[in-house]
Amino acid sequence: MIIRALRKALRPAVWVTAERAFNEIFFLLLFSVQAPILGPSAFGLIAAVMVFITFWESVPGHAITEALLSVRDIEQKHFSTATTISVLLCVVFGVVVFAFAGPLAAAFGNAELAAIMRIMSVLPLIHALSIAPVAAAQREMLFQSITLRTIISVVVGGVVGLILALMGAGVWALVWQAFVQRSVAVVVLWLAVPLRFRLGLSPRHLREVGGFALPVMVSRLMGWGSGQLPRLILGLFLGTADLGLFTLATRLNAIVTQVAIGPKAVVARVDLRRFATDNKALAAAVRRVFLQISFLSYPICFGGAAVTPTLFEAWLDQRWYPAVVPSELMLLSSAPYVTFYVTTAVLYALNMMKAEVAVATALNLGIVVAVVVSASFGLVATTATMAVVTLAAVPLALLVACRSCKLALSDLVAPQAPALVASCLMAGAVSLLRLELAPAYSSLTVLAVCIIAGVVLYALLIAALMPSYAVQTFQFLHRRAVAR
Fold it and tell me: Residues near 78 by Cβ (< 8 Å), separated by ≥ 6?
């Protein structure tokens, strides 16, 4: 039965979802306290520095992790070689970041930026030590170990950041929050994963890891460019305050991709490997993944955009209101990432990294060019252009997946259609309801009513569009409740 199969497949995804959900929920709670104290400029300064710090985590770090997942017959020397080369690369990278701190601070006209960047240049080295255990845990589907690492480190780092913010440390509260969080994460992960810490270089194992890592690195370079270069460009054009607003908007986008889309895609990237030689089974599995991800993510994208104005009124002070429209646009632009994430998972599962590079290159170069062209016109114009480019790249992702993986277009599009239609109809109704209630009720009341109405309406629409799926889901939930 479909639901029984989904139940088994979702167990690892539940851990990944729990990790991402906790991370994002904790961030929102922490941000709610820190935002009024620190203001947009402090978050803008950290965003400017993280453009460079996340380069390591998003490009070489992620590529090496993917390489360790792709090696069929893994050995201890693969892990020790990956750890050693990561540490060596991070030492060089840290020196470059340290040296570049002065020129960047001059470009932004903020001397404090140099000191922040020099302190945070150590973060890539700390992250490098977590690559091997993360890959080992994912290979064995031990996602609970990664979840444990995330929860503990986020809480400890968040507590440190909150205390320092309340004590008046300013932007340095965010600096030490990031430093403590990553340090605790490394320690907890090595304690939670049955992998022995080793250093050493083996030429053969380095060639094997590098053979998988290089194509992924090109793809991730494009991803890093589309995610981080717009922040740098906007910071230089508009200043750190607008950069802080843009960071909030993109964080709402990240909540959707990291909580509703990413977890199942991460698990699918590993799970779909077993269908590499069975195209019919692969097509069925891909349809299930699209169905599961779109069912949850589309209502968040469209419904979230519909309630964003009321959310900001209930959540933040007026300094953050200019981020309302950019946040709506970024939430809507997260919808196409359902297609991008799933097609990427399929291509990676079949070790077709080079095919995925074509999609990533087109998408990410398009976003960077769009930001360069539109940054001088303001934050709303920039986010609108980014949303258009993201949507325009979807056909390319579908075409590459169909040709490379021998999948039918219907395998990729049809499973998404019911959730997409239901979400759009629900968002339109919620928007009208919000406009009707806003003049007479408080923002918190309007927000609560709109969310409840949206959930109920979406459930009814799904039941109408997919009655068999709705019945099976209800039966599954009922059995779970009875079993408890």
Answer: 68, 71, 205, 208, 209
